[in-house]
Amino acid sequence: MSIDAAAATTLPAEARAGTALRSVTRRIDWRPWTAFAALLALWFAAHHFGWVPAKYLPSPLAVVQRLIREVTAGTLLDDLHETLRRNLSGLVIGVAAGLALGALLGASSLVGRIVGPTVLAQRQTALFAWVPLLAMWFGGGDTGKITFIAVAAFQPVVIGTWRGISLVPATYRELSHVLLLSRWNYMRLVALPHALPMIFTGLHGALIYAWLATVGSELFLNISPGLGGRLNEGSQLFEIDLLFLVILLFGLIGLGFNTLAERAEGLLIRWNNR
Amino acid sequence: MNAPFHSPSPQAPATAVPALDIRHVSKAFVVDGKAVEVLADISLSVEAGSFVSIVGASGCGKSTLLRLILGLDLDYAGEIHLDGRPVEGPGPERSIVFQEHRLLPWLTVEGNVGAALLHSGLDAAARRRSVAEHLELVGLEAFAKAYPAQLSGGMAQRVAIARALANRPRFLLLDEPLGALDALTRLRLQGELKRIVAYEGATAVLVTHDVDEAVFLGHRIVVLHPRPGRIAAVLEVPEEARADRSSPAFVALRDRVLELLGVSLGEGRAR
Predict the structure, then answer these.
(1) How does it sit in the membrane (chain A) (predicted)?
(2) Which of A196, B143, B159, B170 is most buried (CB neighbours < 10 A)?
């Protein structure tokens, strides 16, 4: 590396720019993008050579045009706003409930023994099995949707919090006895900090499940403003460009959530390893 | 000095009643459905302010005995009294230093020491003062804001000692507190421990398998034999032995303890 650096200082300007460019390209990992680029190329080719009828596969350009049209008309942003509002409302409710019940389960072995198996059984039911029931209880409107999203977010958080708090090593529990820590101080100083990485894994899961549930609730429950509603619209009116656009958006937002969670998790781990 | 049979009070423990009184304690664990005896008929009294070293091979129940004194385990035969009262659970007058420092990694040094004072009834200012004082006592006042992962093994163990002393316990239990440290750090901390315990005036019970440490720190040495743990001998440590590691009294006592532990000294001398 030091040899590189020494060489760079003696090289002419354009060569130096070349090495700078190369070092930038070296820093960006190109590998994940190759599959993406290949897929895009395949899409272009399939459209261009007519492998798939245009009725079923829009051209990439048509999707971009649709995006511009939707954005300038303001419709897409409204839908995005509705979807995110629903998603975040459900997420907040589900996470809060999951944290509270998880803490209770972890703090009291009696509650853990009585309620725990039911929580574990609930985890085994496939998420979407809840849709018909919640629709009957809360209706197919916003309440039903947000409840479903909350149920989805609740599951990983309650498990992570419960495990994190109940799995405090015996050595720390012994120490807490010797130090005569009250239950509150034990939770605050020992159990919660110990559980933090596991709680965070639960939050990460909640973010992903809540997003899945948001898409699902908008598709399977009443049609209302939101990206899922546009997806239904696209399939019923056979607007293939709209379908593609919305699916891409769902993917991108999901990817954004996941990246956000991973970044935050990385920060937490660094804090934990101080 | 005090009249015999004087009823003890926590402020001025009467010397006639031993501060720590262990009477015919036996303890068994159930392993694979069978009872395995770990301690057999242990009787020992310790006067206030004295330092007792318990030595024995691993598996002789040394650490178990400390757990019983701490009140972490009440399932045993016999009686343990502190100032004439039976042990019914952990209490603020007892504290322990474990072999591993057992500091909470997410709390700073002062946070860890301060955790021992949450139950003390002291206000926040008094707690802060006690934390600072005890960190100074172990020479780590400059590291109050550091996290355990930033400390060496010896420093972390000094913090654990400060934590154990912060609440001014009258009984300090030491479970091989220097066992995980390198030889040089151990020697240095032995000297510090002796000074600190004398300064605090605590009654100390040290469990160790390091015979030199037992002789250097203890006023008395209790030698345990293993499986089940039972007292083989109780030896007084002469003042000159405690004062000087190379004194003939020290060497003689150490050899006597090693002999009681069944270590053949012939091989060592031949080398």
Answers:
(1) Multi-pass membrane protein
(2) B159
